[in-house]
Structure formats: structure tokens, C-alpha cells
Amino acid sequence: MANALYLRDAYLREFEATVTSSRPGEVELSETAFYPAGGGQPCDVGTLHGPEATARRVTRVEKSAGRIVHAVEGETLPVGAKVRGSIDWALRYAHMRYHTCLHILSGVVFHRFGSGITGGQIYPDRARMDLSLPEFSKEVVGEVVAEMNRIVERDLPIEVRFLSREEALRDPSLVRVASELLPDVQEVRLIDIHGFDVQADGGTHLRSTREVGKVSLEKLENKGARNKRLYLTVAPSTPGAAPPIHG
Hints:
alpha+beta; Elongation Factor Tu (Ef-tu), domain 3; six-stranded antiparallel beta barrel; four-stranded antiparallel beta sheet; 3 helices; 36% strand; elongated
């Protein structure tokens, strides 16, 4: 599989790579910062700048049989071509804010109720999470959201680190999803919100909780006897809030 640059640096917006496989409408690269859809997080989109100043729009990115495949518009890029990839940063950053928001929600609920995650989905303007919980009133949800906002305001650093699969599975607090949803990987990626929560995840995240912005409850639904679904929104990011470009 291509070197997945997004796993170690979610703020990398541009990168250089070589085309390693090419078919009409699809390419694979030696390395990529484009996030492929998975884990409730949509894929990145953007542009590949190829030879002779040509540009091809990347419209979809997905994992397929252990490969990262980029769907591109325009003429086929030849194997061996050098390209520069550019991520649609506004969309990526929105996904990062909402993914980190869901991690904070998961941490608050886990530490308070010991509950796990049964599902989730991230959108550019909201996110939802399904949680295995007993009765969960609007009053309790209000307390949970208030606690989330306290974590946001603490401006806690967020670090990516890695652990062997064997070590990660020995600590049930690290893997909040059902075991069958954990990818078949030998090294588990952890998102560590310093002083608050650590859990396994493969998505893109912020560097600090304050970047999430103020969290609000949009809607609460009962999806079964023990399954509760929360829809959350965050305040729009302020101009210049996103860190400068890397790479």
C-alpha cells in the first residue's frame, strides 16, 4: 500500500509522489496525503498536478484490497509520472474538527458511563455518533455537551502514536468500537488527547482541542433500547484559525 502520509501528519496539504499504477480514471501513488473514506470519515478531494503543468481533479479516494486508489478526471497519468497532490484543505479541516469533536464525545461518555461506540458519521457541517447507553435524557446530554466544551476550552494537545495490535487489545479502554470493526493491522494508531483520553483511530485529527470550537447538540434520537444517536455541530472556524501549510 502507498505510504499513507495522513496517518502521521493530518496538516500536510501538499505532497509529491510517483504514479505506481494507472488505469483510465484511477491512479495509485507511491505516497499520498489524501484520506480514503473509512471509519465514518469521508474521503478527501483535491487536485493532482502532473507533467507539463496538467491538473486532474481527484474526486474520490478509497481503499481497495490493501491499496489506496484515487479516482481522477481527465487523461490517464502514465506509470512513473511525478505528480504534486493538493488537498481541498477547507473540507479536510472541517472533517478534522468534527472527527476530533466525536473523540471528545466518546471520551466523555466512556469515562462517565463506560459505554462503547456502535457507529458514527462525519459530514462537513455536522457529525453523529451512536452510543450503547441506557436511558439518556436531554438533561444528561446537556451535561455531556457542557463537559465537551470544557475539554475544548482547556486547549489540550493531541498526539498521534502507535502501539502493537496485541498491546492495544490488552487494554479495552483503547478500542471503543466493536472488535470486528478494528482494521486488521499489526500496529494500532492511537489518538492521545493529553490528560483526558486515549483511543484507537485511523482518521485525521486536530493538534489541540481548542481548534474544535464550541460544540452544540443538534438532535438526539433513540435508535433502540440501548442505542442513542447524537448529532453535533461546532461553531464556524475563524479566519486564520487553521495552521499554515506544510510540505
